[in-house]
Structure formats: structure tokens, C-alpha cells
């Protein structure tokens, strides 16, 4: 079995795949046309040796994953509907961009990442800690309190995943997530890269972000126990926030370790995260696999842009299987040329 460092995520009617050199997004528009976008991947841990040190690289990767994830979601939405005005930066973001000399979209992405982090930390770290402080006044053991805190955190995480996994729009997103895994598994099992063979593979993968988040939850219980349990909620939360980078870095190293080797121990350690992926992935249809294949091949960067465009045209069809309505004329040709196989 061969390995690849390519990974990705499901997006609005599409898939993003990222290799060490290239990030590619493929999206199927409502008309059935598949559009692609390619950009060079620039990882800080690859450019600066000190940021590639174990544990530190995990923190860097986590931050890059957050920024890349928000940017990918925005790019995919624009590719799906280029005329959607809701995707434009707000007046406040535009004003900040003018004063700082930054791109308005970069400012918008920065605020989106900050908001996402604040909500995640608040819901999955601060709130469980406060609840634990309220319900454990008679628990004397610091370990016991930290264990209860961790179990509440894991429970809230599972409830959140279960709730969103049953939403209609999220089900399609998770279908593309499953397609991403199937295509990567297809490559790693050295099978021909086509829909027929990708379909035969598992929709679960040991390097999935879902597994990473579960590892973060478990590692946080172990590391936070070392901090003891202060009766001051401000001290407790402050210490835990300070430890979050360490938790992310250690969790990243564990994820890479258990995904790298195939033995009884690593396979046993993978099982909880793999099982959780039944909530965050769905069995994809062939149309989703087609999009994921194009994204993977574009990120692998072994085919020319023309070959990727030709494959996108061959796989082009509406969700119900009906053919794409062909546009004609110079305007259509110009539009296609600025999106398909775009390199930025």
C-alpha cells in the first residue's frame, strides 16, 4: 500500500484537495458544469525549518488548516455562483482593508477565522469547564473533575456532530467528504483512478480531520489533568487556553503516527476516530466521485490543465444525470477559460 500526503475537505457541491505543492478545488455548478481552480500551496512549516519541528508543526498545520478551510469554503461558493453578492466583503471589512493596505477578502477571512475559533473554544472548552465547576462541588479529586470536564466536552462534540449530520444540506457536504476519502483510498491502494474503482473503496480514512478533533478531545483530558483544578474559573480557563497549542501539536503527531503504520496497536488506536467518521461522511454518488477525482488529479499535478479541463468536460452533467447545456459564443469561451484550470 502506498501513501500520499494529499488530503482535503468537502465543500459546497465540490471537493478541495491539497498536496504539499498544489491546492485544487473542483465544484459542480447547478448547470452540471464542473469548474476547477488551482493554486500553489505554501506551507510555513516547509519554508521555515524551525516551524517543521514535531509538535510545533502541528500547531502551524492547525492554524493553516483553519485559514485554508475558510478560504476554501469562500472560493468554492464563488465558483458555484460567481454572481452571489453575499460573498462580497462587508463595508467594515473593506474599510479596514483600505487602512491596512490588505486585500478585502483576506480581511474577511481573518475575521471569519477569529469568529470560528472563538465560538469553538467557547462551546467546547470554556462552557464544559464552567458546567463542570457547577456540578462537581463535592468532587475532591482534581483528576475526577478534569475527567468529568473532558467527558462533557466529548459528549457535546458528539451531540453537535450527530445534530448537523442529519441536516439535508450537510448530508450532501458529507457525501463529498466521503468521496474525498474514497478517491484518496483508491490512490493509496494503487487502483486505477476512475469512478468504478474509487466506488469500491472505504469512505473512512485514518488522516481525517474528524479523527484529529477526537484526538484533541482525548489529549486535552490527559494534558489538562497535569494543570490540576483551580477553584477560580478564570485561572482554570486561562491555563487551558494557554495549553491549547500544545494539545493541537501533540494531537497532530499522534494522528500522523497512527496513520503511518499498519499494526494491531495503531489500528486499535484508529478505531474511535474511524467510527466517528460514519457521522461526518456519507456514501457518495458517482457524480460526487467524479468531482473528487478531478480535484485529486489537479492537486497531484501530474496532468496538464488541458487534460484536467477535458476530464471535467467528460464528467459534466447535472445532478440528476442529464447533460450539461452547452454555451456557445465568445463570451462562453471566455468565461470557461478564466475558470477551468485556473492557476493563481
UniProtKB/TrEMBL annotation:
Signal peptide: none annotated. The chain crosses the membrane at residues 107-127, 147-164, 208-227, 233-255. This is DUF1385 domain-containing protein. Residues 320-329 have a biased composition (Basic and acidic residues). It holds the Pfam family DUF1385. Keywords: Membrane, Transmembrane, Transmembrane helix. InterPro entries: DUF1385. Residues 320-344 are annotated as: Disordered. The keyword Membrane applies. It comes from Christensenella massiliensis.
Amino acid at each position: 500500500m502506498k501513501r500520499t500526503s494529499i488530503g482535503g475537505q468537502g465543500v459546497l457541491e465540490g471537493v478541495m484537495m491539497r498536496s504539499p505543492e498544489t491546492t485544487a478545488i473542483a465544484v459542480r455548478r447547478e448547470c452540471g458544469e464542473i469548474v476547477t481552480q488551482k493554486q500553489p500551496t505554501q506551507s510555513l512549516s516547509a519554508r521555515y525549518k524551525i516551524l517543521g519541528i514535531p509538535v510545533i508543526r502541528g500547531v502551524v498545520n492547525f492554524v493553516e488548516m483553519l485559514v485554508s478551510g475558510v478560504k476554501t469554503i469562500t472560493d468554492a461558493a464563488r465558483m458555484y455562483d460567481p454572481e452571489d453578492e453575499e460573498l462580497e466583503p462587508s463595508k467594515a471589512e473593506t474599510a479596514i482593508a483600505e487602512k491596512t493596505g490588505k486585500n478585502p477578502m483576506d480581511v474577511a477571512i481573518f475575521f471569519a477565522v477569529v469568529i470560528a475559533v472563538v465560538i469553538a473554544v467557547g462551546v467546547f472548552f470554556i462552557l464544559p469547564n464552567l458546567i463542570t465547576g457547577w456540578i462537581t462541588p463535592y468532587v475532591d479529586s482534581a483528576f475526577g473533575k478534569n475527567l468529568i470536564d473532558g467527558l462533557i466536552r466529548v459528549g457535546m462534540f458528539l451531540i453537535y456532530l450527530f445534530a448537523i449530520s442529519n441536516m439535508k444540506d450537510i448530508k450532501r457536504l458529507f457525501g463529498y467528504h466521503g468521496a474525498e476519502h474514497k478517491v484518496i483510498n483508491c490512490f493509496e491502494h494503487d487502483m486505477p483512478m476512475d469512478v468504478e474503482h474509487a466506488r469500491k473503496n472505504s469512505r473512512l480514512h485514518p488522516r481525517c480531520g474528524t479523527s484529529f478533533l477526537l484526538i484533541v478531545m482525548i489529549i486535552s483530558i490527559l494534558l489538562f489533568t497535569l494543570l490540576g483544578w483551580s477553584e477560580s474559573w478564570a485561572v482554570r480557563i486561562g491555563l487551558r487556553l494557554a495549553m491549547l497549542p500544545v494539545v493541537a501539536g501533540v494531537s497532530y503527531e499522534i494522528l500522523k503516527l497512527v496513520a503511518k503504520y499498519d499494526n494491531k496497536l495503531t489500528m486499535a488506536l484508529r478505531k474511535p476516530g474511524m467510527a466517528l467518521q460514519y457521522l461526518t461522511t456519507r456514501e457518495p454518488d458517482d457524480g460526487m466521485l467524479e468531482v473528487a477525482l478531478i480535484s485529486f488529479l489537479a492537486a497531484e499535478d501530474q496532468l496538464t490543465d488541458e487534460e484536467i479541463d477535458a476530464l471535467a468536460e467528460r464528467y459534466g452533467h447535472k445532478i440528476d444525470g442529464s447533460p450539461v447545456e452547452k454555451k456557445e459564443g465568445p463570451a462562453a469561451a471566455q468565461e470557461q477559460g478564466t475558470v477551468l484550470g485556473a492557476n493563481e
